[in-house]
Amino acid sequence: MILRRHAILLLNGATTTGSRTHATSAAHAAAFKSGHAADVFLCNHLIDSYGGSGRLAAARRVFDEMQRRNLVSWSALISGCARAGSPELALELFARMDAPPNEHIYASVARSCAALRALAAGAQVHADAVKTGFLGASFVANSFVSMYMKCGRFDEGYDVFRTLAEPTVVSYNAVISGLAASSQPERGLEVFRHMKLRGLRPDMFSYASVLGICGSLENSYTGAALHSDAVKIGLDVTAFVGNVILEMYSRYGTVEEAEQVFLSVQEKDAVTWNTYIAAHSRRGGHMEALMLFKDMVDANVCHDSFTLASALAACAELSLIRHGEQVHGHLIRSREDTDVAVGNAIISMYSKCGHMVFAARVFDRLHGRNLLSWNTLISGFGRQGHAMEAIEAFERMEEAGVPPDSVTFTVLLAACNHAGLVTQGMDYFNSMSGRYGVSPRGEHVSCVIDLLGRAGRLKEAEDHVWASAFGDDPVVLGSLLSACRVHGDTDVGERVAGRLLALGPATSSPYVLLSHLYASGGRWNGVAEAWRMLKEKTGKKQDAGCSMVDSR
After folding, report:
1. What is the DSSP string of 14-48?
2. CB-based contact 91:81 (threshold 8 Å)
3. Distance CA 76, CA 90 (A)
4. Residue 337 DSSP class
5. What predicted TM-score, i.e. pTM, was given to this entire model?
6. Backbone angles phi, psi at 247, to 5 degrees
7. Can you name the CATH fold of 468-540?
8. Nearest 10 degrees: CA dihedral of 191, 192, 198, 199?
9. What is d(CA 271, CA 258) in angstroms, rounded to the nearest whole number?
């Protein structure tokens, strides 16, 4: 009895993870030395403590060595597995149980099914909980609501929620967060209003969910009202809620509003900084984004892959190779390994800055290259006019067993287009469906039309347009009309222009191209007619051109 008390005091007195781990090991050793290792009460506490600190192997060992087990033994181990991120083991243990489950086991198994998105197993456990009468416990019902929501069965989750006689804030949060991730987020706002009407006080999880809904719906009025409520109860200064408000304003608000929210968050974490950096980049403020990255490093905030990728993307957009090299250098100094997402951002930065030697070097040293890595490299070579290197990279990609996608062929055809490699480009285009199983899209047809058009093969390009499923695509038709203007082919140009103008173009480009086409052939009546149609259809008048010269 004295040993029991001593062990329990040791286990309960541990507050941090490290001290809890040490206290559990000490209590376990004391029980083993004194011959009390078979004590069910003490073993249950050891299983719970080991599981709570994430040491599932030790908890399982204690459980397996027990000569006698009770319901608490099963509950402690299954709950520990669910908390420690081993849902498969929790379900395996549940299936092996030789005793009727209790409410804690049902809740843990429901959470495990949610983590695995195991809808069929979760529905069976739900039915069993209904039969045994444990669904009346609110925390059990909440677990099943969350399970159905995470599995995408929102109606079933809402049906479980409606069976609760006295739903709690946790119950409402489970429904709201589930609806926020569904195709019916407006219902989440309705449930939030209903919760407030029932006199329940929303917590930080409630506000994070509904503010996230407002951000995704770009509902500025409701979002501002919820922001005001969060300010009144002091949740806006917390990173958990403040980050969601910041994301909301970065989507549809102004940079000034986002800045006010950013400054109000008291303990800024990496998500806070990342969201604010992204807000500036989204609006073209790439230099401001870089300055924020520097401030974040100076503040000793632990940055993540998203931070580094955002900073590198800003350098790429500004073509600031010096700053990009500094970020790359900081990455080398602060991290032993570079994950593939950041590696792809480095490749993109160097390629957009015109340094393909460095981009290729980073690519060759990158572990775990994915499809995006290859596409970025091929795109970089094509953008810098190195079509043969782009083709060689594509061939290496095939040898590596990486199947190309639609983007791969877009950048590959663009590379052939810029270099005038008509034969190679047509071969790749013609092999897309049959050899690679990639259906041509509008951008692929547009590249081919531009490729043939630059080579002066306008009739062949026209045949491709009418034979494809994109004969009414304004981009495809515009590419062909532009090629007709370059080569002065008014016959094909008039047919293409007629089709394009019949679609009611949203811009003035087709009219301008047609007028230039007529002008190149000296058909001034056609030029006047093109400008007349432009004025009638769009109400726009082309501004007169002018030149400015700086004289001293």
Report:
1. --SHHHHHHHHHHHHHHHHHTT-TT-HHHHHHHHH
2. no
3. 11
4. S
5. 0.74
6. -65, -40
7. 1.25.40
8. 170
9. 14
In whole angstroms, give the CA distance from residue 523 to residue 516.
10
| Contact criterion met (CB below 8 Å) for 89 and 56 | yes
Cα–Cα distances in Å, from 509 out to 174, 471, 526, 538? 51, 18, 16, 11
Of the candidate ranges 55-64, 79-88, 209-218, 491-500, the one whose mean pLDDT is the lowest: 491-500
Name the token pair of 509.
């480009």
Per-domain residue ranges of the chain: 32-84, 100-166, 167-264, 268-368, 468-540
pLDDT reported for residue 12: 52
Task: Classify residue 473 as left (phi > 0), alpha (psi -120 to 50) or beta.
Answer: beta
> Which residues, other chains included, contact 344 with Cβ-Cβ below 8 Å and sequence gap of 6+?
309, 366, 370, 372, 373, 376
268-368: what fold?
Answer: 1.25.40
Closest CA to 269 of 304, 231, 245, 228: 304
Contact yes or no for 66/40 (Cβ under 8 A): yes
Q: Which residues contact 202 (CB under 8 A, 6 or more apart)?
A: 169, 172, 192, 195, 196, 210
DSSP state for residue 136 in the 8-state scheme: G
